[in-house]
């Protein structure tokens, strides 16, 4: 009996010692102790739990998204001065100047006929309908054998005349075409990160403060 009690005591003592060793009370304990587990974590204070739908943070070093601002309606000389001013403020932004195409006139006409004979027949029909001011375009080009009915400086004037031709003269084939020409106005486009653009466009001289904001053209690849 004494031998059994001794063996039982040694077994219990061995289990207690094994438990204490496993908890790290005697130093390193195979990586399972609480102290070892905490020491093995990689910067636990920097861990963050993102909520559902929260976008991931931007990777370090990722370049900011490029944006564009356009200032339009400038005289060419003024646009040149603005380009020089903005380029001098920040060499990292892209500054471009482009001419604006402005509609100069609106053309009321009958689109080109297939050949001269058909154009002459259409001209005769117009005369019978009481239309007097017209001529057949005979010069070679995209509008050859079209019939010009009038050229207007405003779109409203062209629409009024077309409406009168349709209602009073029963001319159904007439159309309006906006004729565009290179205008004398320019737009200045500035591309870069949002913060750079804000700094570059801040506190502009008085001649540029009231400049019209416009859409940027599609950037060339």
Brief overview:
It contains seven helices and six strands; from the N terminus they run ααβαβαββαβααβ.
Describe this structure in words.
The chain is an alpha+beta fold. Helix content is 37%, strand content 25%. The protein is elongated. The longest helix has 21 residues, at 2-22. Among the domains are: 67-102 and 183-214, Alpha-Beta Plaits (2-Layer Sandwich), CATH 3.30.70; 103-181, Alpha-Beta Plaits, CATH 3.30.70. The protein has seven helices and six strands. The model has no long low-confidence stretch (mean pLDDT 81). A six-stranded antiparallel beta sheet has the order 3-4-2-5-1-6.
Secondary structure elements and pairings:
Layout: H1 2-22, H2 34-40, E1 67-75, H3 76-89, E2 94-110, H4 116-128, E3 135-136, E4 147-152, H5 155-168, E5 175-192, H6 194-201, H7 206-209, E6 212-214
Antiparallel strand pairs: 1-5, 1-6, 2-4, 2-5, 3-4
The chain-level mean pLDDT equals 81
**β content, as a range?**
15-25%
Shape, principal axes of CA atoms: elongated
Radius of gyration: 41 Å
Regions with pLDDT < 50 over 5+ consecutive residues? none
Would you tell me which CATH topology of the domain at 103-181 applies?
Alpha-Beta Plaits
Distance between the termini: 95 Å
**Which class do the helix and strand fractions yield?**
alpha+beta
Kindly provide the name of the CATH class of the domain at 103-181: Alpha Beta
List the helices and strands in order.
HHEHEHEEHEHHE
**Contiguous helical run count:** 7
The counted number of beta strands is: 6
Task: Label the CATH architecture of the domain at 103-181.
Answer: 2-Layer Sandwich
Strand order of the largest sheet: 3-4-2-5-1-6
Helical percent range? Answer: 25-40%
Question: Main β-sheet: number of strands, strand sense, barrel status?
Answer: 6 strands, antiparallel
């Amino acid at each position: 009996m004494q031998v059994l009690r001794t063996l039982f005591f040694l077994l219990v003592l061995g289990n207690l010692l094994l438990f204490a060793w496993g908890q790290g009370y005697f130093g390193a304990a195979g990586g399972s102790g609480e102290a070892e587990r905490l020491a093995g974590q990689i910067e636990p204070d920097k861990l963050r739990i993102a909520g559902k739908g929260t976008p991931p943070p931007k990777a370090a070093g990722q370049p900011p998204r490029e944006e564009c601002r356009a200032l339009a309606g400038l005289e060419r000389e003024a646009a040149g001065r603005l380009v020089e001013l903005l380029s001098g403020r920040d060499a990292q932004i892209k500054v471009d100047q482009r001419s604006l195409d402005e509609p100069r006139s609106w053309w009321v006409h009958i689109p080109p006929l297939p050949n001269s004979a058909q154009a002459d027949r259409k001209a005769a029909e117009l005369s019978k309908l009481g239309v007097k001011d017209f001529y057949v375009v005979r010069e070679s080009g995209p509008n050859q054998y079209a019939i010009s009915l009038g050229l207007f400086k405003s779109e409203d004037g062209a629409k009024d005349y077309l409406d009168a031709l349709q209602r009073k003269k029963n001319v159904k084939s007439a159309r309006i075409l906006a004729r565009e020409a290179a205008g004398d106005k320019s737009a200045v486009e500035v591309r870069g990160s949002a913060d750079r653009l804000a700094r570059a466009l801040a506190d502009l001289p008085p001649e540029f403060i009231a400049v019209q904001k416009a859409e940027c053209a599609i950037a060339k690849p």
